[in-house]
Amino acid sequence: MRTGETLILIDGDSRRRAAVSHLLAGSDLHVEPFEDSSELASRWPSDGVILAHDDTGIVRDLIDAMSRSMKWMPLVAFAQQPGTAQVVRAVMDGASNYLAWPFTVEEVRRAAAAARESHQAMGSLRLREAAARSRIQRLTPREREVLAGVAAGLSNRLIGERLSISPRTVEIHRANMLNKIGASHSNEAIRIAIEAALVR
Description:
Largest sheet: 5 strands, parallel
Strand order of the largest sheet: 2-1-3-4-5
Mean pLDDT: 87
Number of domains: 2
Strand content: 5-15%
Distance between the termini: 36 Å
């Protein structure tokens, strides 16, 4: 890892945030602490590795924020005694690495280095996929079905026949779907569906 790596620490627990900051204070790692992702969004850094306590949805929130700002950063999640399902969920949502708290400076250094290498090797592809999945998760099951029909090249009439709803209802679901995923037209929605692996 580069000397003087900046860690963007996000943790809503002030005591743990202080403990992590204190642990890393004597190292070559520079820590910028934030309480939550909304505080980070108001002062988005130009570079660094995000070290985020794995509260429910934090990884997805951060990937969404990166998607909106188009500023991609490696992300390491951490939690005290994380379960396998928790680690898998965080990685599926877009975390590059995961640590168990309490950790050592060397563990943080290695995790951050691995996250940066993975980030550089993959470019923004994995993060785009995670961001697309996050957008798709905003949809109702019916809106996902309409998106799948759109991605398959079906007309509103054919989508309606397949789902046993009227073409007008398909239009309404289609408009809602485009709005929720932030797509301005069907081609953009199809790209998001492909990136999210909703369609192949």
